[in-house]
Amino acid sequence: MKLFSKILVCFCVFILASGVNAESFSAKYKVSTKNITIGELFWNLNKNNKTYKLNIELKSKGLLSSLFKFRGSYNVSGFLQNNIFVPHHYTQEWLTKKKKKDVQITFEKNKVSLLLQQPAEKEFSRVNIGLLRGYVDPLTSFINILINSLPSY
8 CB contacts (<8 Å, ≥6 apart)? Predict the structure, then answer.
C-alpha cells in the first residue's frame, strides 16, 4: 500500500497535471526503479459537466513480479459541484500473495455514510467517521488538487 501511495503521488503531480481537464483521459505507464520494471499503472478518467468516474489499475510486472506479485484496483464515481469533484462511491481492492484487502466508502451530504472493510480492521478507530464533514477519498482529493489547486483534506 505504501508503494502504491508513493507511485500515485509522483504520477499525479508530474504526469497528469496537464491532462485531467479533458472530458476523457486514459493512460498506461510503466512503473520502474533503477531501470527495473516493477509494474504498470492504468489511469482512466471520464467526466462531463455533472459527473465523473475515475479508475486506476496497478499490477506487478517484470522480473520482480515472481517474488512480489500485487494488483490494485481503485475506483471512484461522483459529481461536479462548481467545478469541484465530490465523491459518491469509492472502492479499493489490493491483492498480494499474502493479503487481500477491500474497501468501500459511500458519501452522502458531504460526509461518509458507509465504510466497509474486508478483512475488518483489527485496530480500534480513533476517529468517529460519522462526525467527519468534507472528507473525500484519495483519488478525488488528487483530482481536486491538480485541477483546482485545492488543499488536500
Answer: 56, 138, 142
| 3-class DSSP string for the chain | CHHHHHHHHHHHHHHHCCCCCCCEEEEEEEEEECCEEEEEEEEEEEECCCEEEEEEEEEECCHHHHCCCEEEEEEEEEEEECCEEEEEEEEEEEEECCCEEEEEEEEECCEEEEEEEECCCCCCCCCCHHHCCCCCCHHHHHHHHHHHCCCCC
pLDDT in tens, 69-128: 899 999 999 999 988 999 999 999 999 988 999 999 999 988 999 999 999 888 888 888
Q: Give this prediction's pTM.
A: 0.78
Cis bond before residue 119 (omega within 30° of 0): yes
- The residues, any chain, with a CB within 8 Å of residue 63's CB and separated by 6 or more, are 36, 37
pLDDT band for 64, please (50, 70, 90 cuts): confident
Length of the chain: 153
Q: What is the mean pLDDT of the chain?
A: 83
